[in-house]
Amino acid sequence: MSRSRRKLEHIRHALNREDMGVNSFDEVEIIHQSLTDIHWDDISLQTQLGELSLSSPLFVNAMTGGGGEKTEAINRDLAIAARETGIALAVGSQMSALKDEKERQTYQVVRRENPDGIVFANIGSEATLEQAKIAVDMLEANALQIHLNVLQELIMPEGDRDFSERLRQIEEIVKGVDVPVIIKEVGFGISMESTRQLKDIGVSYIDVGGKGGTNFSKVENKRRKQPFESFNQWGIPTAISVKEVKSVYPECNVVASGGMRNGLDGAKAFVLGANAFGMAGHLLRILIKDDLETLVEEINHIHHEFKIAMMVLGAKDTYMLDGKPHIFTGRTKAWLEQRSTG
Ligand code: FNR
């Protein structure tokens, strides 16, 4: 199957809400506070993610590109929505555009529609340093995401099988490009062990891409004659993954993503120590099932909801949410106790 056809199938499967598992943010309760001391107009959504100054804690996470006219149209709409709401946007994997120059247009539309916005480039961990630089230049990107998707590749019949050089290649890119490099998962989460390995090679931005939303085991299994269904529940839930990363690397710039549904999930992620949150499937579903206008309204609604949480918790700035009183329940509590993430 061609790469572009596969991308369109990913979109189709990702639109299916059945693929969503249990969401760990339902097992994080923030403790309500009755005596807020701030004025609504003083609340700022301005967010610092390491070197990146974002006007919102939310961004559109990596999804499409390289699949021809359809994916170009989706990228155009995502870029317009990002521009209209002032949020950052990551493009989908540019690996196909690195191999075929004709595909570049489907990504570059993002920069054309949003010339002054914050844009993240996106490549796989198989990329070389030279390819990483081309991916960044292609979009005049403000940051570069490198996705880790071992399990997805293993379930894909045509997926990669050799990961022996990946950590070394990531290290070369982190040290060799002059924009921040964000290492991201695609729905299976980042553990404390993987965090230590990433820290050792100089990574300082991690997008946990945890379990709870788009599920690439299920997506890829649907495309197989003989699926590996035993892996459909695999992965580290997003809220837990944020805790895992922070527990061994407190100064890391952490992005929460994977099943983020609303502004309150975003605020909970900040309480756990995240510095930004990304949404992919939820925003794509709205764009495709409704339209661009509804997507813009939804992003504004998410901002509003995030601000309500900030107000109730007495946080004028997004970083002030970090560590606000909260408890864990259910499986999330059991997990954190056994992994001693503090
Ligand atoms: C993705 N995702 C993704 N990630 C990445 O780094 N490069 C990519 O090319 C893609 N492609 C892609 C296509 C589609 C259709 C979807 C829905 C997702 C993964 C995405 O960025 C994110 O990590 C996961 O989808 C989990 O987040 P959500 O969807 O639960 O918010």
From TrEMBL:
One of its GO terms (cellular component) is cytoplasm. Substrate binds at R6, K7, Q152. Its cofactor is FMN; NADPH; Mg(2+). It comes from the Bacteria. GO terms for biological process: isoprenoid biosynthetic process. Its EC number is 5.3.3.2. It is found in: Cytoplasm. The keyword Flavoprotein applies. Residues 166-320 form the FMN-dependent dehydrogenase domain. It catalyses: isopentenyl diphosphate = dimethylallyl diphosphate. Keywords: Cytoplasm, Flavoprotein, FMN, Isomerase, Isoprene biosynthesis, Magnesium, Metal-binding, NADP. The keyword Lipoprotein does not apply. CDD domains: IDI-2_FMN. Mg(2+) binds at E153. One of its GO terms (molecular function) is FMN binding. FMN binds at A62, M63, T64, S93, N122, K184, T214, G259, M260, R261, A280, G281. InterPro entries: Aldolase_TIM, FMN-dep_DH, IPdP_isomerase. SUPFAM superfamilies: FMN-linked oxidoreductases. It holds the Pfam family FMN_dh. Homooctamer. Dimer of tetramers. Involved in the biosynthesis of isoprenoids. Catalyzes the 1,3-allylic rearrangement of the homoallylic substrate isopentenyl (IPP) to its allylic isomer, dimethylallyl diphosphate (DMAPP). Belongs to the IPP isomerase type 2 family. This is Isopentenyl-diphosphate delta-isomerase.
